[in-house]
Amino acid sequence: MLPSFLSFLAATALASCSVVSAAPQGGRHSRSADAYPWSGWESQQCNSETIRTRVDFNNMAPADRKAYTDAVKCLMGKPSQLDPEQYPAAINRYMDYAVIHVNRTQHVHLDAFFLTWHRYFLWLYETDLQQSCGYTGAFPYWDFAATASDPHAFPIFDGSEYSMSGDGLYDNTGPTQLGANFSIPHGTGGGCVTTGPFANLIAPIKFIDPSQLTTGTLPADAFAYNEICLQRDLNAYVSQTYTNQAQLVAAAHADNASQFEYLLNGVIGSSSLGIHSGAHFSVGGQMNSIHVSAQDPIWYPLHTMIDKVYTSWQANYPDRASQLDGSTGTALNTPPSDVVTLDSVEPDWGYFQLTPIQVQELISTTAGPFCYQYDNVIS
């Protein structure tokens, strides 16, 4: 298996680690997963009339882009379903997703669950926007290769009411150190986001350094409420270097699942970010934390793009579509866990989905719970 994002940290992993606590379930209003009609799915007939198509945010009409961000803000206006004493940072339903993502980070990153767990997490979020907020438009992705020349120059980050909000206020925080001999230069922001639909958003989960993965645990105050603004530091150097079209095409044509994972996540510490990690660091702020990045609304279009790359790789090489990379079910295999197979049961998705689901049920976007496609395939 080729090395993974942050695998340089493995050498310093603790000899004995505690398992991350179970994903948050209900509590605030004692609602169960049964309260959500999409949380218990049955295989459906997917055909040309029922399939939904995901599209590039930048290619959507302004009114359609605003309809999407309005739906996201609607979710932010709905009450949390988590225990407020255990999860004070879960200030609304939108942040419930971020809390669940934090609590599952050790089990769904840098391992063989990453692609399929996030595929279903995105589907749950998309369906929630539809069922809870009446969203009827397409679920958008951020084509970060198309915007690599300068993210500011495209609708997605132009800071208008039709964007996903813009850059953060300029704050000269200096370069970001990613390894002993590897850093990236400061971008054009660094401070609070003050423009667009998510201006002045509070992102209450404090920054968790990726090195926390070496412990197999979360900080004791991981879910404390913090009065922290959404921050960004848009970085054209990072996007031009790590998320350009050539690298996108290379990932969509990876020789096997291990190489695909490597081209996504790279190896921090050896000047290789990969397109997934590169997209995160091209945004900066909370997106620089593997744990808490889902607080930023751009996280969802970014990861939908990762799913598009995954779907394209599967379409380009049908014989590899069900292939896994041979890794285990925990980040850096910390704590030690079994090798993931198609029969393995996915980590749950908190109260949104408690029913056990096998990896093989989430391999296809047109089978199992899914019935969606992308507007094009990366060929």
Overview of this protein structure:
With about 375 residues, the chain is mostly helical. The protein has a single domain (about 25-375), classed as Di-copper center containing domain from catechol oxidase (di-copper center containing domain from catechol oxidase). It has eight helices and seven strands. The strands form three sheets. Strands 2-1-7 form a three-stranded parallel sheet. Strand 4 (about 175-180) and strand 5 form a beta hairpin. It is globular, with a radius of gyration of 19 Å. The model is unreliable at about 1-20 and about 25-40 (pLDDT under 50). GO terms for molecular function: metal ion binding; oxidoreductase activity. It comes from Capronia epimyces CBS 606.96. InterPro entries: Di-copper_centre_dom_sf, Tyrosinase/Hemocyanin, Tyrosinase_Cu-bd. Pfam families: Tyrosinase. Keywords: Metal-binding, Oxidoreductase, Signal.
Summarize the structure.
The protein is mainly alpha-helical and 379 residues long. The chain is built from eight helices and seven strands.
- Using the 3D structure, state the CATH architecture: Orthogonal Bundle
What's the arrangement of strands in the largest beta sheet?
Answer: 2-1-7
Which word captures the global form? globular
Overall number of domains: 1
Low-confidence stretches: 1-22, 27-38
Classified by CATH, the class is Mainly Alpha
